[in-house]
Design goal:
CATH topology of chain C: Ribosomal Protein S5, domain 2
Largest sheet of chain C: 6 strands, mixed
Chains: A alpha+beta, B alpha+beta, C alpha+beta
CATH architecture of chain C: 2-Layer Sandwich
Distance between the termini of chain C: 46 Å
Structural class of chain A: alpha+beta
Pfam families (chain A): RNase_PH, RNase_PH_C
CATH superfamily of chain C: GHMP Kinase, N-terminal domain
Distance between the termini of chain A: 64 Å
Radius of gyration of chain C: 20 Å
Largest interface: A-B, 37 and 40 residues
Number of helices of chain A: 4
Order of helices and strands of chain C: HEEEEHEEHEEEEEEHEEH
GO biological process, one term (chain A): U4 snRNA 3'-end processing
CATH architecture of chain A: 2-Layer Sandwich
Mean pLDDT of chain A: 88
Number of domains of chain C: 1
Family (chain A): Belongs to the RNase PH family.
Oligomer: heterotrimer
GO molecular function (chain A): RNA binding
Protein name (chain A): Ribosomal RNA-processing protein 41
Chain lengths: ~240, ~300, ~280
């Protein structure tokens, strides 16, 4: 087992200097790629992710065509230089496929696919640097990219992780923390507070469960403000450029 | 239907009449609520139930409010509210002029990529036969479809009809439509190309311009004589001299500069950009700083022109 | 590729209407599990579980192997869940479908990541020899909720399994056969139990242990893995209809009761098996 780590120091600060309810530093920018219909780049702490959305466009294979709605296709790839050890990760790694499937199922009820029968929406996510929180950053990046592509969605989908260190709920875990404490990832629709994705892999007592979930939901709302601000700034920018 | 991002009009106008001739029926206060309002998905557009919802809006089943489903600007025509996102795929209407590339040759039809949600369809019955022959297409024609158009060919066509699932059917039953040659291809976001009376322009620098409403643009050599009827499906390019090639390249790069800065594309703007670019050699036009200079010049000139028009 | 058999629109409406009124086709309550049957095979580590019409078989085997380099003093557990066309006619053999990946990930999280089995106790000689436990799960019949059935099968098989006894003298390891010495059970920390919920009508109606027909009309699903100590070992709600937080908390309470009941059933079956021997 790993040696005893002090995840919360004596002054109540975590290993990266945050308090228990602080999100990591977040930077996001939509419309970063010129060829994709929609794209976004997000940084949450040291985790960096790039998302590209193509669509709705002609479906690639006849087998994937659905007669009454659009087919959503998600592919995630982890760059070989993203982790501490340079290793080429295969695309059919079960963990990555599971995250891709979770992202796809998260967006299926949110994107209005009934408007685009027989088309395909492709979401490509590339993790450039990994420091914990893969699922949450993929969902946040995909949300921004889909909005940038002009594909109608019922609401933003914001995701955040929370955990429990020394019986206290903490927000937004990095890689060190998520390997040693139970981590709960929550994806939320900020408008009506409904939860679309819930994932946890380690043991957490049920009495703590509600507190941790509520903390993650609060984190999602904060992330929503950051994403919304970025989208609005981008639109105002473009409006300024195009109005003559 | 014009598509423009307009700045708020001065309040000296008593009766607001927009480009279509519709008179605004709303109170001044309500009108101001909506002008250039930016909304994001999930945001409430309005609480009032009197408005009808167009594209980009939906009614939340729980609260019965009208919410936005895309990020964009509120576009209101009397009682109809819709949201225009800034980057969309081309959504066409009957009569639109589009440029497309053949992706597939199937039975009695071609599939054409027009930067839309699905590939458009060009039926064998919608094309002209070489030589101006007017007859029904036989099975022999079906077997020789590749003689007319094969995969990768560029063509300019008009939208004939739209199907329920959102795909289009094109036709090229006119001599000005058909296969494109002698030029260069540029892609811009479809939102930037406005609808005009004509989409075939000849620029004073001696270059032909075909603006497809789907964001595909063809810049070609100016030909004075019309293409012979027998050669409408030929794959041969004519001889193009150095001066013409430079002019074509310069126009292409000016269009890319305009699209990068999200400025609308029509023949006037392209001419202004072309003139502004004459100061630089053609290959420098792809540099970002040079593009900045050109586009700022263009926007200045447009402001002057608009101010001149208002007076 | 054979398409999955779907019920007609009439049938789907009928089932949905019944659920709205709290009635299910097999006369169960909405929070009830189906009839759970656990039988153990003639050899150690083989268990067959029937949950209504769903049948899953789990078989545990062990082998001595080299440990992983980054975990030199721990044994290994491998889970294999291949979906064959026997239970899933629409699955192509060889290509893992999306559903299979989800099922195998949930079971892995439930059994491996939650540290249900003591892996340090599987170490024989650190850095050289450890026990590698392999659990093969075979789906024999699919009538909904294969995840719960597979989890019960895997856990009961692991609890029933006996590995050969070994003696270590210095560097020499002797593996005693079953006749020589009594085989040793695995040390199990806790028993993780999966409870699957299905949601209908935008999260308003919940059903526990859905049948295949109910699974086809569901709008969302969630699998909670808990143990009898009221710890949530894994949670997976991957998309599907968005839910209110109260619904999730409610489900977690229901899942605790169900997990307790299932653990008691497994324990009773194990005890019955032991007294038989």
């Amino acid at each position: 087992m790993s040696s005893r780590l002090e995840l919360i120091g004596p002054q109540g600060l975590r290993t990266d200097g945050r308090r228990f309810n602080e999100l990591r530093n977040m930077n996001c920018k939509p419309s970063v790629l010129s060829q994709a219909d929609g794209s976004a780049y997000i940084e949450q702490g040291n985790t960096k992710c790039l998302a590209a959305v193509y669509g709705p466009r002609e479906a690639r294979t006849k087998a994937q065509v659905l007669h009454n709605r659009a087919n959503i296709n998600v592919e995630i790839s982890l760059a070989p230089f993203s982790m501490e050890e340079r290793k080429k990760r295969s695309k059919s790694d079960k963990r990555i496929l599971e995250i891709a499937s979770a992202v796809k199922q998260t967006f299926e009820p949110i994107i209005m696919t009934e408007l685009y029968a027989r088309s395909q929406i492709d979401i490509y996510l590339q993790i450039l640097q990994f420091d914990g929180g893969t699922v949450q950053i993929c969902i946040n990046a995909a949300t921004l990219a889909i909005i940038d592509a002009g594909i109608p969605m019922k609401d933003y989908v914001c995701a955040c992780s929370a955990g429990c260190i020394d019986d206290e709920p903490v927000l937004d875990l990095n890689h060190l923390e998520e390997s040693n404490t139970p981590e709960l990832t929550v994806a939320l629709l900020p408008k009506n507070d409904k939860i679309t994705l819930l994932q946890m892999e380690s043991r957490l007592h049920i009495d703590k469960f509600q507190q941790v979930m509520e903390m993650a939901a609060k984190g999602c709302k904060e992330i929503h403000t950051v994403l919304d601000k970025a989208v609005r700034e981008n639109i105002k920018d473009l409006l300024k450029k195009s109005s003559i | 239907m014009t598509f423009q991002f307009l700045s708020p009009k001065p309040s000296s106008y008593t009766n607001k009449v927009d480009a279509d001739g519709d008179i605004d029926m709303l109170l001044k206060t309500e009108r101001e609520n909506f002008e250039t309002k930016v909304v994001t998905p999930g945001e409430t557009i309005t609480h009032a139930t009197q408005y009808m919802g167009g594209h980009g809006t939906y009614i939340s089943p729980e609260t019965n409010q009208r919410l936005s489903s895309v990020a964009g600007v509120v576009d209101r025509v009397n009682k109809l509210i819709s949201i225009r996102p800034l980057h969309t795929r081309y959504t066409g209407e009957i009569g639109d002029l589009v440029i497309g590339r053949i992706t597939e040759v199937s039975q009695k039809r071609w599939k054409v990529d027009i930067n839309s949600r699905q590939d458009a369809v060009l039926l064998l019955s919608s094309i002209n036969l070489p030589g101006g022959v007017q007859r029904r297409k036989t099975e022999a024609d079906e077997l020789q479809m590749r003689k007319f158009f094969s995969e990768g060919d560029l063509l300019v066509a008009e939208v004939r009809e739209t199907f329920q699932d959102g795909s289009f059917s094109l036709h090229i039953r006119s001599l000005k439509y058909g296969k494109l040659r002698n030029g260069s291809f540029v892609i811009v976001p479809p939102a930037l190309v406005q609808r005009c009376k004509t989409h075939f322009h000849t620029l004073p620098c001696g270059v032909n311009l075909t603006l497809g409403l789907n964001g595909y643009i063809w810049v070609s050599k100016h030909t004075t004589q019309t293409v012979e009827e027998l050669a409408i499906y030929s794959n041969e390019n004519e001889e193009i001299d150095q001066e013409n090639r430079e002019a074509i390249a310069r126009v292409c790069n000016s269009i890319s500069a305009l699209s990068r800065h999200f400025m609308c594309i029509n023949d006037k703007m392209i001419m202004l950009a072309y003139e502004a670019s004459l100061n630089f050699p053609v290959k420098d036009l792809l540099k970002l700083d040079v593009m900045e200079v050109i586009t700022s010049e263009v926007s200045e000139k447009m402001i002057l022109l608009k101010a001149g028009m208002r007076r | 590729m054979v398409k999955e058999f779907e019920s007609s629109i009439n049938e789907k409406d009928f089932i949905l209407q019944g659920i709205k009124e709290g009635l299910r086709l097999d006369n169960r309550d909405i929070y009830d599990f189906r009839q759970l049957g656990i039988t153990f095979g003639p050899d150690y580590g083989r268990s067959e579980v029937t949950l209504g019409n769903t049948r899953v078989l789990a078989k545990v085997s062990c082998e001595v192997m080299r440990p992983y380099q980054d975990r030199p003093a721990e044994g290994m557990i491998t889970l294999s869940t291949e979906m064959s066309p026997m239970a899933f006619p629409s699955v192509e053999p060889g290509r893992p479908s999306e559903e299979e990946i989800l099922v195998s990930r949930i079971l892995e999280k439930a059994i491996k990541r939650s540290r249900a089995i003591d892996t340090e106790g599987l170490c024989i000689v650190a850095n050289e020899k450890v026990w590698s436990i392999r659990v093969d799960i075979h789906f024999l019949d699919h009538d909904g909720n294969i995840i719960d059935a597979a989890c019960i099968a895997a856990i009961s098989a692991l609890a029933h399994f006996r590995r050969p006894d070994i003696t270590v003298i210095g560097e020499e390891v002797t593996i005693h056969s079953i006749e020589q010495r009594n085989p040793v059970p695995l040390s199990i920390h806790h028993m993780p139990i999966c409870v699957t919920f299905a949601f209908f009508e935008n999260g308003e109606y919940v059903v526990v242990d859905p049948t295949l027909q109910e699974e086809q009309i569901r709008q969302g699903d969630m699998t909670m893995t808990l143990n009898i100590h009221k710890e949530i070992c894994a949670l997976s709600k991957a998309g599907g209809t968005p839910l209110k937080m109260e619904t999730i908390i409610n489900c977690s309470q229901i899942a605790t009761t169900k997990a307790k009941w299932i653990t008691e059933q497994i324990q009773a079956a194990l005890d019955a098996e032991k007294s038989k021997k």
